[in-house]
Prior knowledge:
By secondary structure, this protein is mainly alpha-helical. It is built from four helices and no strands. The N and C termini lie far apart (66 Å).
Amino acid sequence: MKEVRNWEEANFSRAALAEGFAVAIAKGFVGIFARAYAEGYAQVQAEEMLKVAKKLLAMIGRRRFGEPGPGMVDRIEALFDREIVESLVEESFSATNGDELLATGRAGA
């Protein structure tokens, strides 16, 4: 760091340093906000994919087994893991009824 010889240089150096800190802080906040936005966006995407998978499971179930019995819709809505719902969609082609289907996986447990 160079030696400061007068007040003007000292004030300029302080101002430049303060501006540098302000820019660094602003960039840090932008980075934090960008990461938070990306994480939030990923969470929304995951939730939407889960909704679509549940809707698909319900559609296939209605087509194969008829209208769901009491509590069946609640059991499907209670599922929170997209991978489980997707595995149930696959298993729906071999199950003989909705209760058997939901009993095959960890669904409704």
